[in-house]
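Appendix C: a fully annotated inverse folding record. The material below is reproduced so that readers can follow the format used throughout the book. The structure is listed first as tokens, followed by the designed sequence.
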């Protein structure tokens, strides 16, 4: 794609020509795209297993003392407030 800009504020954009495919080539390309899309959207058995294992699990699951959790949450609140102040809110 090429574009030119003159100093009057006009922008001209020339799109790239589309590649020409034979009917069979186009069908193959669409099949690859469809397969790639399905692979990206359908979770694998491994992903489903991990999700199921983590579904009903507590964040700390009793491995961290209460005072440590309280300190971490307090630090998180301070950090959240600091980010809010830095954004100007």
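Designed amino acids, in order:
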């Amino acid at each position: 794609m090429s574009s030119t800009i003159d100093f009057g504020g006009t922008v001209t954009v020339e799109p790239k020509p589309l590649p020409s495919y034979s009917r069979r080539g186009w069908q193959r390309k669409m099949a690859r795209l469809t397969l790639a899309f399905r692979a990206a959207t359908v979770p694998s058995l491994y992903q489903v297993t991990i999700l199921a294992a983590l579904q009903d699990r507590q964040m700390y699951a009793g491995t961290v003392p209460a005072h440590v959790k309280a300190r971490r949450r307090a630090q998180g609140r301070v950090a959240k407030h600091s980010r809010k102040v830095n954004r100007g809110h």
